[in-house]
Amino acid sequence: MKLHVKLGLIFSIITMASTLAYSVFFYVHEKASFYSNAKEGLTSLGERMISQFDDYVQVMDYTLENLISNTEFMDAMAIHANPHYAQSDMQWLEASKTMGNVLYRDALNKNYHRVNAFNRGGMLYTSRFDNRDTVNQLTHDIAKIVDSLPWLRKVDQRPFQRVFVPPHLDPWTAGKEVQVFSAVRSIIWMGQHIGYLEVQSREEDLQAIFSPQGLEGVSVSAFINGGGLLYESEAGAAARGKGFLTGEWSVGNYGLYELAFSSDKNQLTLYMAQDTSAWQASLMRFMYKVGITALILQVVILIVIMLVSRRLTKSVRQLEDEISNVQLEDLSLSPPIGLRAGDEIYRLQNAFHALIERLNSSIRDEIRLRELHLQARMNALQAQINPHFIYNTLNVINSKSLEYGALDIARLTDRFSEMLRYTTNMHEKTVTLEQELEHAANYLELMKLRYEHKLEYRIDVPDRALWIKLPRLTLQPLVENAILHGYQQNNRVMKISITGRIESGQLVLEVRDNGDGFSGQILQDVSEQARRLYANHEQKEGESVGGVGLMNTLARLYYFSNGKMKFSLFNEDGAVVQISLAE
Asked: CATH fold of 433-582, please?
């Protein structure tokens, strides 16, 4: 059987068996708990709603009790209910002031829509009396509004109890419709009925209490026993019309999970149902999670297969290494791989050896022909671009410039001639630091002629370090990089410095500018490439180092010093390249 067939068969069997076993096990294990978790989630949500509603109503009851326990407020309300109780107009005015002060408080307006005190005789005091949309005794018939309240008869029938009124239009707001729900008490004071106290909250507060947060497809209907519907979600009416199963957890005939809760404290009954489509959506997410987990398992299996295939393909890799190491200059053969005579790799190796032997003689002839062809091309290029022609041309320009008094042009051609002579000298690959500084100075002088007052430079290196050997063209590329890339975002005067100092037997060279500095990406890239360079210093000079141009210059220094040179790039009022060399 072929090797790739073996690997494919093993991979298919292991992957399919592992994925199937994992999926079946996980699905069976989680399916039972999913029903339980869904029930617990809906039950917990219903209990939270009941608890929040009881707490909210308790606060409303506390507000009513607090007002009733205020004797000054009750006396003032009694005077308004029976004006003949007031001994003078001043006492009646004091009663009005007392009621206004008690009701108009930030705590009441902050926690409720409004708190009202009213009676059938036309009295109305409210915590939001200053709102323009609030009805008042001057512009509205308060007694007529009170008589029109449909729930007031029920309040009269229970004079010492709080009556909870389901959501209704606020009768005390004029000009717009505001849905509120209320806690109302009929007030009996000193044996006389003196009016009503009402604590109102907006319908949005009920929505916040009965909102099925975190659960999808849940419908809610809440009823006050004997008082009608208190709250119903958008899907509540449809679900309620299909019938709920009170107190039982089950799958209904209409695709609903149904539960009922009750609160004896406030005679509240809460019906909840969850649509099976939401459950199906949760199940699909669950299956998606299973699929992702199965995919991770397949990746693990793939790693196992790779390890197995590595063992199985050991002989293939050995033959690959032998082929990869063959050089055209040296076609010597490695010892045969220890394989059985009938193995495919053994026959392939024999065929390869036979091919190498047939090509050995012809390759040498081909190499000689290529060398001759390359030499001919080099001679042609050298004939086309002869540095001496350029030198002679520059000398002519220099002479003519002096003849016509163009000293700047003469100076420029002289500097450029020196730079050209320095860069085209291929006989010496290494130079002294003094020569490098002279070349960098020539370049800076040329840039000075171009930028004039916008460029300032300084070179300060101790004399004892000038004899140190460096690769040719080390400093000038660093200076050029600073000028070309350091001032793209600003227009300040360019200040370039090349300085050196001796520290602990090391020459520390710094090329510094006052430009934009290195970007964070460049510093990160150089740091990563420097780490690779230090870890693999056996690389040969000329091998590609990375995408940062100045890294080639720094890498040449590193290879030239056999790994003894260290360098760093950082920002300090501009870009700084720091190089440490043995003195």
From this structure: Heat Shock Protein 90 (3.30.565)
